[in-house]
Amino acid sequence: MELYGIIASLCFVGGTLFQAVKCYKDGHAKGVSHGIIWTLLLGFILMGIHIMTKFGWDLALMGSLIGQIICFMVIARYKYWERVKDYSDLKDVIDKHL
After folding, report:
1. Do 92 and 83 form a contact (C-beta atoms < 8 A)?
2. What is the pLDDT of residue 13?
């Protein structure tokens, strides 16, 4: 049964990894909704609490969760702070966030 959990964890990390790489390459995460960002964040917090209370520091589970959180942080960074390709776009980005 543990093998299924490891495979599932790799799938979850892989899914967020591909999206994180795409966001990094594009310099934005315009196609990702705010709902998915906040739902993922809540899910990571709740899953972390569940893992700690039920299993303690299980290496496979915590490693998977940490990998997903790292990929999530890249996606969220480009969702809320796009990469500015040239400084003429900087004014538009600042105006959008203020």
Report:
1. no
2. 79
Per-residue pLDDT at 97: 63
> Is residue 12 exposed (0-12), middle (13-18) or buried (19+ Cβ within 10 Å)?
middle
Q: How far apart are CA 25 and CA 19, in angstroms?
A: 10
Distance separating alpha carbons of residues 40 and 53, to the nearest angstrom: 20
CA angle 78/81/87 to nearest 5° reads 115
State pLDDT tens for residues 2-23: 777 677 777 777 778 888 888 8
How many Å apart are CA 66 and CA 42, to the nearest integer? 14
Q: pTM for the full model?
A: 0.68
Instruction: Residue 21: count other Cβ atoms within 10 Å of its Cβ.
Output: 13
Helix-helix angle 59-80:34-54, to 10 degrees? 160
Q: Residue 94: what pLDDT?
A: 67
Rounded to 10 degrees, the C-alpha dihedral 93/29/70/2 comes to 170
